Amino acid sequence: MNESQVSGYDTGHDTGHDRRRNSNVRWIICGLLFLAATVNYADRQVIGILKPTLQVQLHWSEVDYGHIIAAFQFAYAIGYLLVGRLMDRTGSYRGFSFAVVFWSLAEMAHAFARSVTGFGIARSALGLGEGGSFPASMKTVGEWFPENERALATGIFNAGTNIGAVVAPLSVPWITIHYGWRWAFLATGALGFVWVVLWLVVYGWAERRVHRGELGGIIDRPEAVRGTSWAQLLTRRQVWAIAIGKFLTDPVWFLYLFWIPDFLNKTRGLGLLNLGLPLVVIYLASDVGSVSGGWLSGALIRRGWSVITARKTAMFVCACGVLPILFAVRASSLWMAVGLVGLAAACHQGWSANIYTLVSDMFPGQEVGSVVGIAGMAGAGGSMLIAEIVSHILQATGSYYSIFAIASCTYLVALGIIQVMVGKEDGPADSLAPGS
């Protein structure tokens, strides 16, 4: 295939006939990834919303809760690595289905837990399954989208994480009050099975419907390709740059996810029924940040910027937007605090859309799942560490000030490291040799 046939876009050789045949079904696939992220985060967010309730009913300490979250993060790290590799070997179509079924069963298993240990086991299983979500999604984006659309597609599907984080506070309190907290886990877990049916049906339909050029040549390649070994990948400074960036910044997002309900409860006195609107505002702001961050780097690429420079510029803007969260603890009103947290969460999601997309920019398709898995494992490892740190800080001081102070400057540090390690590398993914 020549360039115009591979991309399906206007390269000077496309015909009107080719453009008419372009089906745009890749955006339907993106919609499915959005829904998967929504289910993923609805499942993940339930325990954060129920934290005050479960602490009272099951007599958890702050450290007990920290251990449960750390158990999730530990398994999530393993899941990212192993399931990311699975996606490269089996393809995202089958691998994603398996991952969603597994984590949905794990979410429902929380309903039968009776102790900290029981929740830790269920949470570990959830983390193991959910570790497959982003490797599968990024692999799918790399297969279905050209470079100038990847960050936008990533931002769109990543926005589903915030919708999931909105769905949970709107539904979980109502379910808990009317039916008990166990049904909150059962109901959210059941959503995954609905998604799997949609994925299996719609993905097959989309492959039949898509114009060959729209897939960028992916349709001509076998779904499962034997990728580069982990040992070979770990010799590349680009892999380490992404992994360190994720290690430093992913913990901040999990801080928002698992502790913001508690922050609002402790500092603003919000109970279970009053948490919904502030959390909705925070996560809707995150949606805006996710899509805007992806759009920004894509817009810069369309203006002639190099791909890597455009991604890093968007990341710098997002890193600066996180700085004001330092003042959230001492904000003069509830909505000022919510606004500062919402801004930081939005900037994190814009950052996330671009750092994930760097992987598909710098690595060939058969390596994307594995690299995202390595980076995600690093991010989950950092999140496991922060779970223990936050719980012990809160147990000792009861204050979020030092926690937010750390969160405010982490992104600029991470970007500095990425800049040093990646530099001005803009070569095609396939040209990246080990140690290059």
Which structural class do the helices and strands define?
mainly alpha
CATH class membership: Mainly Alpha
Number of extended strands? 0
- The domain tally reads 1
Question: What name goes with the CATH superfamily?
Answer: MFS general substrate transporter like domains
Uncertain residue ranges: 1-21, 217-225, 426-436
Averaged pLDDT: 80
CATH topology: Growth Hormone, Chain: A
SSE topology string = HHHHHHHHHHHHHHHH
Largest sheet: none
Walk me through the structure.
With 436 residues, the chain is mainly alpha-helical. It has one domain: MFS general substrate transporter like domains (Growth Hormone, Chain: A). Helices cover 79% and strands 0% of the residues. It has 16 helices and no strands. It has helices spanning 3-7, 16-21, 26-58, 62-90, 92-109, 116-130, 133-144, 147-179, 181-209, 230-233, 237-268, 276-302, 307-322, 334-362, 365-397, 401-422. Helix 4 packs parallel to helix 6 (116-130) and helix 13 (307-322) runs antiparallel to helix 14. It is globular, with a radius of gyration of 21 Å. It starts with a helix and ends in a 14-residue tail after the last helix.
